[in-house]
Protein backbone atom coordinates (compact mmCIF):
# COMPACT_ATOMS: atom_id res chain seq x y z
CA UNK A 1 0.00 0.00 0.00
CA UNK A 2 2.82 2.40 0.88
CA UNK A 3 4.50 1.63 -2.43
CA UNK A 4 1.34 2.54 -4.34
CA UNK A 5 1.01 5.88 -2.53
CA UNK A 6 4.66 6.68 -3.28
CA UNK A 7 4.22 5.97 -7.01
CA UNK A 8 1.15 8.22 -7.16
CA UNK A 9 3.05 11.05 -5.44
CA UNK A 10 5.97 10.76 -7.87
CA UNK A 11 3.59 10.75 -10.83
CA UNK A 12 1.94 13.91 -9.50
CA UNK A 13 5.28 15.65 -9.14
CA UNK A 14 6.27 14.70 -12.68
CA UNK A 15 2.94 15.98 -13.99
CA UNK A 16 3.43 19.27 -12.17
CA UNK A 17 6.88 19.68 -13.65
CA UNK A 18 5.53 18.95 -17.09
CA UNK A 19 2.83 21.64 -16.72
CA UNK A 20 5.50 24.17 -15.82
CA UNK A 21 7.44 23.30 -18.98
CA UNK A 22 6.45 25.82 -21.68
CA UNK A 23 7.15 23.24 -24.33
CA UNK A 24 4.49 21.01 -22.78
CA UNK A 25 1.73 23.64 -22.86
CA UNK A 26 -1.00 22.90 -25.41
CA UNK A 27 -0.50 24.72 -28.73
CA UNK A 28 -2.57 27.86 -29.16
CA UNK A 29 -3.31 29.60 -32.43
CA UNK A 30 -1.44 32.89 -32.78
CA UNK A 31 -2.42 36.14 -34.41
CA UNK A 32 0.72 37.03 -36.32
CA UNK A 33 2.08 38.98 -39.24
CA UNK A 34 4.68 38.10 -41.83
CA UNK A 35 7.20 40.93 -41.89
CA UNK A 36 7.60 42.75 -45.16
CA UNK A 37 9.32 45.99 -46.03
CA UNK A 38 7.26 49.07 -46.64
CA UNK A 39 8.98 49.69 -49.93
CA UNK A 40 6.55 51.08 -52.48
CA UNK A 41 8.24 49.92 -55.67
CA UNK A 42 5.50 47.34 -56.14
CA UNK A 43 2.66 49.80 -55.63
CA UNK A 44 0.97 51.35 -58.62
CA UNK A 45 -0.31 54.63 -57.26
CA UNK A 46 -2.73 57.08 -58.80
CA UNK A 47 -2.00 60.79 -58.74
CA UNK A 48 -3.20 64.03 -60.27
CA UNK A 49 -1.29 66.55 -62.36
CA UNK A 50 -1.33 69.98 -60.73
CA UNK A 51 0.37 73.32 -61.22
CA UNK A 52 3.45 74.05 -59.17
CA UNK A 53 2.53 77.75 -59.28
CA UNK A 54 -1.04 78.86 -58.57
CA UNK A 55 -1.77 82.44 -57.62
CA UNK A 56 -4.65 84.81 -57.02
CA UNK A 57 -4.53 87.88 -59.26
CA UNK A 58 -6.12 91.27 -58.62
CA UNK A 59 -5.90 94.90 -59.68
CA UNK A 60 -3.40 97.28 -58.15
CA UNK A 61 -6.10 99.94 -58.10
CA UNK A 62 -9.60 100.35 -56.72
CA UNK A 63 -12.46 100.48 -59.20
CA UNK A 64 -15.48 98.87 -60.83
CA UNK A 65 -14.98 95.87 -63.10
CA UNK A 66 -16.50 96.44 -66.54
CA UNK A 67 -15.14 93.32 -68.22
CA UNK A 68 -13.91 89.86 -67.26
CA UNK A 69 -13.52 87.91 -70.52
CA UNK A 70 -12.19 84.69 -68.95
CA UNK A 71 -13.97 81.81 -67.22
CA UNK A 72 -12.93 78.73 -65.25
CA UNK A 73 -10.97 76.33 -67.43
CA UNK A 74 -9.84 78.91 -69.99
CA UNK A 75 -6.25 78.54 -71.17
CA UNK A 76 -4.51 81.92 -71.35
CA UNK A 77 -1.12 83.07 -72.59
CA UNK A 78 1.15 85.50 -70.84
CA UNK A 79 -0.12 89.04 -71.40
CA UNK A 80 -3.73 88.01 -72.06
CA UNK A 81 -6.40 90.36 -70.70
CA UNK A 82 -8.13 88.82 -67.70
CA UNK A 83 -10.28 91.74 -66.52
CA UNK A 84 -10.68 95.52 -66.89
CA UNK A 85 -11.72 98.34 -64.59
CA UNK A 86 -13.94 101.25 -65.63
CA UNK A 87 -11.41 103.83 -66.91
CA UNK A 88 -13.82 106.75 -66.52
CA UNK A 89 -13.62 106.70 -62.73
CA UNK A 90 -9.85 106.39 -62.87
CA UNK A 91 -9.58 109.18 -65.43
CA UNK A 92 -11.70 111.42 -63.22
CA UNK A 93 -9.37 110.72 -60.32
CA UNK A 94 -6.37 111.52 -62.53
CA UNK A 95 -7.88 114.82 -63.65
CA UNK A 96 -8.66 115.79 -60.07
CA UNK A 97 -5.09 114.97 -59.06
CA UNK A 98 -3.75 117.04 -61.97
CA UNK A 99 -5.90 119.98 -60.92
CA UNK A 100 -4.65 119.62 -57.36
CA UNK A 101 -1.07 119.71 -58.60
CA UNK A 102 -1.71 122.88 -60.63
CA UNK A 103 -3.22 124.57 -57.57
CA UNK A 104 -0.27 123.51 -55.45
CA UNK A 105 2.13 125.05 -57.98
CA UNK A 106 0.24 128.35 -57.84
CA UNK A 107 0.30 128.39 -54.04
CA UNK A 108 4.01 127.62 -54.06
CA UNK A 109 4.72 130.51 -56.42
CA UNK A 110 2.61 132.84 -54.28
CA UNK A 111 4.43 131.75 -51.11
CA UNK A 112 7.82 132.19 -52.79
CA UNK A 113 7.03 135.77 -53.85
CA UNK A 114 5.69 136.59 -50.38
CA UNK A 115 8.88 135.27 -48.80
CA UNK A 116 11.10 137.30 -51.13
CA UNK A 117 9.05 140.46 -50.57
CA UNK A 118 9.17 140.05 -46.79
CA UNK A 119 12.93 139.52 -46.91
CA UNK A 120 13.34 142.79 -48.81
CA UNK A 121 11.17 144.62 -46.30
CA UNK A 122 13.20 143.23 -43.42
CA UNK A 123 16.36 144.50 -45.10
CA UNK A 124 14.82 147.97 -45.26
CA UNK A 125 13.72 147.73 -41.64
CA UNK A 126 10.05 147.86 -42.53
CA UNK A 127 9.17 144.23 -41.64
CA UNK A 128 10.13 142.24 -38.58
CA UNK A 129 12.16 139.05 -38.34
CA UNK A 130 9.05 137.27 -37.07
CA UNK A 131 7.22 138.21 -40.26
CA UNK A 132 10.11 136.81 -42.28
CA UNK A 133 9.98 133.53 -40.35
CA UNK A 134 6.24 133.27 -40.92
CA UNK A 135 6.69 133.81 -44.67
CA UNK A 136 9.45 131.21 -44.82
CA UNK A 137 7.24 128.72 -42.95
CA UNK A 138 4.43 129.28 -45.46
CA UNK A 139 6.90 128.68 -48.28
CA UNK A 140 8.02 125.38 -46.74
CA UNK A 141 4.42 124.27 -46.35
CA UNK A 142 3.72 125.12 -49.99
CA UNK A 143 6.71 123.04 -51.11
CA UNK A 144 5.51 120.06 -49.06
CA UNK A 145 2.01 120.45 -50.49
CA UNK A 146 3.45 120.41 -54.00
CA UNK A 147 5.30 117.17 -53.27
CA UNK A 148 2.11 115.57 -51.96
CA UNK A 149 0.12 116.71 -54.99
CA UNK A 150 2.80 115.33 -57.30
CA UNK A 151 2.65 111.96 -55.55
CA UNK A 152 -1.15 111.88 -55.78
CA UNK A 153 -1.02 112.55 -59.53
CA UNK A 154 1.63 109.87 -60.04
CA UNK A 155 -0.53 107.36 -58.16
CA UNK A 156 -3.61 108.31 -60.19
CA UNK A 157 -1.71 107.93 -63.46
CA UNK A 158 -0.38 104.55 -62.34
CA UNK A 159 -3.90 103.47 -61.39
CA UNK A 160 -5.10 104.36 -64.86
CA UNK A 161 -2.39 102.09 -66.23
CA UNK A 162 -3.48 99.34 -63.82
CA UNK A 163 -7.02 99.34 -65.20
CA UNK A 164 -6.21 96.25 -67.28
CA UNK A 165 -5.38 92.98 -65.49
CA UNK A 166 -3.12 90.74 -67.59
CA UNK A 167 -1.84 87.20 -67.13
CA UNK A 168 1.75 87.21 -65.80
CA UNK A 169 2.40 83.74 -67.24
CA UNK A 170 0.91 80.99 -69.39
CA UNK A 171 -1.74 79.13 -67.45
CA UNK A 172 -5.29 77.99 -66.84
CA UNK A 173 -8.01 79.90 -65.00
CA UNK A 174 -8.94 77.69 -62.05
CA UNK A 175 -11.35 80.06 -60.30
CA UNK A 176 -13.09 83.42 -60.76
CA UNK A 177 -13.55 85.49 -57.62
CA UNK A 178 -15.26 88.65 -58.92
CA UNK A 179 -17.71 89.36 -61.72
CA UNK A 180 -18.27 92.32 -64.03
CA UNK A 181 -20.00 95.16 -62.19
CA UNK A 182 -18.34 94.44 -58.86
CA UNK A 183 -16.35 97.16 -57.14
CA UNK A 184 -13.01 95.80 -55.98
CA UNK A 185 -10.28 97.29 -53.87
CA UNK A 186 -6.60 97.25 -54.71
CA UNK A 187 -5.19 93.76 -54.19
CA UNK A 188 -8.56 92.01 -53.96
CA UNK A 189 -8.41 88.68 -55.87
CA UNK A 190 -10.35 88.61 -59.13
CA UNK A 191 -9.17 85.37 -60.77
CA UNK A 192 -6.98 82.40 -59.81
CA UNK A 193 -4.37 81.34 -62.34
CA UNK A 194 -2.47 78.03 -62.40
CA UNK A 195 0.72 78.05 -64.43
CA UNK A 196 1.04 75.37 -67.09
CA UNK A 197 4.79 75.53 -67.62
CA UNK A 198 5.86 73.95 -64.32
CA UNK A 199 3.68 70.98 -63.43
CA UNK A 200 3.75 68.39 -60.67
CA UNK A 201 2.06 65.14 -59.77
CA UNK A 202 0.31 64.98 -56.41
CA UNK A 203 -0.14 61.55 -54.83
CA UNK A 204 -1.35 60.34 -51.42
CA UNK A 205 0.94 57.94 -49.55
CA UNK A 206 0.52 56.17 -46.20
CA UNK A 207 2.63 57.67 -43.45
CA UNK A 208 4.75 54.53 -43.22
CA UNK A 209 5.53 54.69 -46.95
CA UNK A 210 6.44 58.35 -46.66
CA UNK A 211 8.92 57.50 -43.91
CA UNK A 212 10.57 55.01 -46.26
CA UNK A 213 11.17 57.54 -49.02
CA UNK A 214 14.81 58.43 -49.51
CA UNK A 215 16.12 61.82 -50.57
CA UNK A 216 17.04 60.28 -53.92
CA UNK A 217 13.60 58.78 -54.59
CA UNK A 218 12.73 58.77 -58.30
CA UNK A 219 9.25 58.07 -59.65
CA UNK A 220 7.97 57.17 -63.08
CA UNK A 221 4.77 59.00 -63.95
CA UNK A 222 2.60 57.77 -66.81
CA UNK A 223 -0.60 59.13 -68.29
CA UNK A 224 -3.48 56.90 -67.26
CA UNK A 225 -4.58 54.79 -70.20
CA UNK A 226 -1.47 55.68 -72.21
CA UNK A 227 1.51 53.96 -70.59
CA UNK A 228 3.81 55.07 -73.42
CA UNK A 229 3.29 58.69 -72.36
CA UNK A 230 5.45 59.03 -69.29
CA UNK A 231 8.22 60.95 -67.59
CA UNK A 232 10.17 60.90 -64.34
CA UNK A 233 9.66 62.93 -61.19
CA UNK A 234 11.31 63.73 -57.88
CA UNK A 235 9.89 64.70 -54.51
CA UNK A 236 9.74 68.45 -53.93
CA UNK A 237 7.42 68.62 -50.94
CA UNK A 238 5.70 66.33 -48.44
CA UNK A 239 2.72 67.72 -46.57
CA UNK A 240 3.62 67.75 -42.86
CA UNK A 241 0.12 66.84 -41.62
CA UNK A 242 -1.64 63.59 -42.49
CA UNK A 243 -5.27 63.45 -43.55
CA UNK A 244 -7.32 62.72 -40.44
CA UNK A 245 -9.58 60.24 -42.25
CA UNK A 246 -7.19 58.32 -44.50
CA UNK A 247 -3.95 58.81 -42.51
CA UNK A 248 -2.16 59.60 -45.76
CA UNK A 249 0.08 62.51 -46.63
CA UNK A 250 0.23 64.37 -49.91
CA UNK A 251 3.52 64.06 -51.77
CA UNK A 252 4.36 66.59 -54.48
CA UNK A 253 6.48 65.31 -57.37
CA UNK A 254 8.15 67.69 -59.81
CA UNK A 255 7.66 66.39 -63.36
CA UNK A 256 10.73 66.44 -65.58
CA UNK A 257 9.85 67.80 -69.03
CA UNK A 258 6.20 66.69 -68.82
CA UNK A 259 4.49 65.83 -72.13
CA UNK A 260 1.91 68.33 -73.33
CA UNK A 261 -0.81 65.71 -72.87
CA UNK A 262 -0.19 65.71 -69.11
CA UNK A 263 -2.57 68.60 -68.65
CA UNK A 264 -3.65 69.99 -65.32
CA UNK A 265 -6.16 67.76 -63.57
CA UNK A 266 -5.53 64.54 -65.52
CA UNK A 267 -4.97 61.26 -63.68
CA UNK A 268 -1.56 59.60 -63.82
CA UNK A 269 -0.01 56.34 -62.68
CA UNK A 270 2.88 56.86 -60.26
CA UNK A 271 5.47 54.15 -59.73
CA UNK A 272 8.62 54.33 -57.60
CA UNK A 273 11.65 53.23 -59.60
CA UNK A 274 14.50 54.12 -57.25
CA UNK A 275 15.46 55.46 -53.85
CA UNK A 276 12.50 53.99 -52.01
CA UNK A 277 14.43 52.88 -48.99
CA UNK A 278 13.52 49.82 -46.92
CA UNK A 279 11.43 50.19 -43.81
CA UNK A 280 10.37 47.31 -41.57
CA UNK A 281 7.32 48.00 -39.44
CA UNK A 282 5.11 45.95 -37.13
CA UNK A 283 1.95 46.78 -35.14
CA UNK A 284 2.44 48.45 -31.78
CA UNK A 285 0.63 45.49 -30.21
CA UNK A 286 3.52 43.21 -31.21
CA UNK A 287 5.95 44.97 -28.87
CA UNK A 288 6.65 43.54 -25.43
CA UNK A 289 8.31 46.10 -23.16
CA UNK A 290 10.31 45.08 -20.11
CA UNK A 291 12.71 47.20 -18.06
CA UNK A 292 13.02 49.81 -20.78
CA UNK A 293 13.81 47.26 -23.50
CA UNK A 294 11.60 46.15 -26.39
CA UNK A 295 11.03 42.60 -27.57
CA UNK A 296 8.94 40.72 -30.10
CA UNK A 297 7.84 37.09 -30.27
CA UNK A 298 9.08 35.36 -33.40
CA UNK A 299 7.43 32.10 -34.47
CA UNK A 300 9.81 29.40 -35.64
CA UNK A 301 8.31 27.19 -38.28
CA UNK A 302 7.99 24.24 -38.73
CA UNK A 303 8.92 23.78 -35.06
CA UNK A 304 5.84 25.84 -34.13
CA UNK A 305 7.57 27.44 -31.16
CA UNK A 306 8.07 31.08 -30.17
CA UNK A 307 11.28 32.83 -29.22
CA UNK A 308 11.68 36.26 -27.68
CA UNK A 309 13.82 38.61 -29.78
CA UNK A 310 15.23 41.96 -28.66
CA UNK A 311 14.21 44.68 -31.11
CA UNK A 312 15.16 48.33 -31.51
CA UNK A 313 12.03 50.26 -32.40
CA UNK A 314 10.75 53.82 -32.80
CA UNK A 315 7.25 55.29 -33.22
CA UNK A 316 6.00 55.44 -36.79
CA UNK A 317 2.38 56.49 -36.44
CA UNK A 318 -0.84 54.93 -37.64
CA UNK A 319 -0.62 52.26 -34.92
CA UNK A 320 2.73 50.89 -36.08
CA UNK A 321 6.37 51.09 -35.02
CA UNK A 322 9.51 51.04 -37.08
CA UNK A 323 11.93 48.19 -36.38
CA UNK A 324 15.57 49.17 -36.77
CA UNK A 325 17.12 45.86 -35.71
CA UNK A 326 16.23 42.38 -34.49
CA UNK A 327 13.59 41.55 -37.09
CA UNK A 328 14.14 40.42 -40.66
CA UNK A 329 11.94 40.36 -43.71
CA UNK A 330 9.96 37.12 -43.77
CA UNK A 331 9.83 36.68 -39.99
CA UNK A 332 6.49 35.68 -38.49
CA UNK A 333 5.84 38.02 -35.57
CA UNK A 334 3.07 37.56 -33.00
CA UNK A 335 0.84 40.64 -32.90
CA UNK A 336 -1.71 39.74 -30.19
CA UNK A 337 -1.41 38.26 -26.72
CA UNK A 338 2.31 38.93 -26.40
CA UNK A 339 2.10 39.11 -22.59
CA UNK A 340 0.79 35.55 -22.27
CA UNK A 341 3.58 33.76 -24.13
CA UNK A 342 6.70 32.10 -22.80
CA UNK A 343 9.96 31.32 -24.53
CA UNK A 344 9.86 27.97 -26.27
CA UNK A 345 6.09 27.68 -26.01
CA UNK A 346 4.45 25.68 -28.77
CA UNK A 347 1.87 27.53 -30.86
CA UNK A 348 -0.72 26.47 -33.34
CA UNK A 349 -1.44 27.71 -36.84
CA UNK A 350 -1.20 31.35 -37.79
CA UNK A 351 -4.35 33.47 -37.57
CA UNK A 352 -4.34 36.70 -39.56
Automatic annotation (TrEMBL):
NCBIfam families: RND_mfp. This is RND family efflux transporter MFP subunit. It comes from Actibacterium naphthalenivorans. Transmembrane segments: none annotated. One of its GO terms (molecular function) is efflux transmembrane transporter activity. Residues 202-273 form the CusB-like beta-barrel domain. InterPro entries: Beta-barrel_RND_2 (IPR058792), MdtA-like_BSH (IPR058625), RND_pump_MFP (IPR006143). Pfam families: Beta-barrel_RND_2 (PF25954), BSH_RND (PF25917). One of its GO terms (cellular component) is efflux pump complex.
Amino acid sequence: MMRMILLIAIAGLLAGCKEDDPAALPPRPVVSEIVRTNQIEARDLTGTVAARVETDLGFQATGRIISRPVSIGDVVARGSVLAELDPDDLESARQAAAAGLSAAKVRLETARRASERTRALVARGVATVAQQESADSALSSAKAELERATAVLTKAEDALGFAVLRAPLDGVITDVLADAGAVVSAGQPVVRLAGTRDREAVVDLPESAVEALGDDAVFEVGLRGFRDIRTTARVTEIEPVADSATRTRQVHLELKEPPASMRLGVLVHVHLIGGGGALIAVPESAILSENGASYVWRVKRPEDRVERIAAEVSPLGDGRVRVHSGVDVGDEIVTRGVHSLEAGQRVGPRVQ
